Amino acid sequence: MALEHAILVSLLEQPGSGYELARRFERSIGRFWTATHQQIYRVLKRMEGDGWVTAEEVGQDGRPDKRSFSVAGQGRAVLVEWLRAPVQPEAVRHELAVKIRGAAFTDLAGRASLITEVERYRAEHEALLGRYLNGEKRDFPDTSSLDAGQRLQHAVLRGGIAYERMLLDWLDDVLDTLRAL
């Protein structure tokens, strides 16, 4: 997937400025696709030049005007073509998993250091799960009245929640295994 596709999806959900897009990436899209503010602005400029998005100047009281982007017909066509293309399973690259396998070739001090690293990694993912669960409560308090787009957004969030829970279970298993060595 290219950043362009994630931006097109976000702008179809709701037009916005580059700053607003960056905030969405931090808050929700970042659950499955990350981008810096600079990357978003650079790609928006290229997408505008390619005719995929249009920008409208929006005046703001006491602040400089902002540019609000929306998807143009050509951008929608690009997205539809991309949506129809098959998706290949992603190759998993997991540095921590390689380190865990390597624990068989280290001494007790090396394994103790790895346990500390797995505990740190686990704490980060536990905090991320907490943010996802809080976001779910905030953004989807009543699932009975969601429109199609909201239901799909919620499905992606539930996938992130399930992934984090699976990862935490696996990390608990890893910690039990390392401590038993």
From TrEMBL:
Residues 92-178 form the Transcription regulator PadR C-terminal domain. Pfam families: PadR, Vir_act_alpha_C. Residues 7-79 form the Transcription regulator PadR N-terminal domain. InterPro entries: Tscrpt_reg_PadR_C, Tscrpt_reg_PadR_N, WH-like_DNA-bd_sf, WH_DNA-bd_sf. It comes from the Bacteria. PANTHER family: TRANSCRIPTIONAL REGULATOR YQJI (PTHR43252), TRANSCRIPTIONAL REGULATORY PROTEIN (PTHR43252:SF4). This is PadR family transcriptional regulator.
